[in-house]
Each structure stands twice: as C-alpha cells, then as structure tokens.
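sanity check this chain:
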Amino acid sequence: MTTRLALAIASVGGVGYIPFAPGTFGSAAGLALWWLLPASIPVHALAIVVVFVVGTWSAHVAEQHYARTDPGSVVIDEVVGMFITLFMNPWSWKTALLAFLLFRAADIVKPYPANRLERLHGGLGIMADDAMAAVYANLAVRGVRMFITGIG
C-alpha cells in the first residue's frame, strides 16, 4: 500500500505514465495545481516545502521499485519545479506560459549547479536538480517581466 501511494505521488496521479514527454505533462500538472492554490505567499511557500519533502520520499521509493535511477514516470519533480518557478511572480496566463517555457528549458539544459545536484542519491537528486533549475527559471521570469511590457 505504501509503495502504491508513493508511485501515485511520484507520477502525479499517473501523469508520469503518459508515453511521450512525461516531464512536459508533469510541468503542466504543476501549473494546474499551482492555479488551484490560494493566492497566498505563505501557502505557496508551504506547498513548495511539502511537495519537495513528499516528492523526495516518493521519488526514492519509485527508484527502488523500478530498480533504476530517475525513472521517467517520476514527474513530481516537475511539479515542485513549476511551484518554485511561479513563486512570488504575479499570476497571469502570460506569466504562467512564460514560466512554463522557461522552466522546461532550464530543466532540459540543467545549468550549473543543477547538473551536479542530479547526482545526489535517491529521491533527493531527482528533486534537487529540478528545484535548482526552477530557481534559474524564476529569476528569468522576473528578468523578462522587467524588460517586456504587457507580461503579467
């Protein structure tokens, strides 16, 4: 029962089992979940911490279950990545789309030190590299919004 729960969380209710671009769909799920949260900085911060901690546990269980490092079905890391990317950025669909695109790019490129964090053992490595990529994406969203009018 515990393994089933962990796999359900790690795959974000099965989103990670979509046969193509599971990370993109996981990011989209993160965007949808963020939209459902109350517009409150403390709630957002708490959601990031909870998803990171629970995601680390569930990703670790998924690695053990599938006997491989960072299984493709684990997309909870994309959810926390979207949460961090959107954190303290004003909500609008334009900003959300920008955040989505910038996070996907940062998650794929994995700029330093994200590329090093993915080497951490177990679920922590799965979650930490996306969290770091999301910090870059969050800063990029802020930068773009500063220089382009009409976003936000």
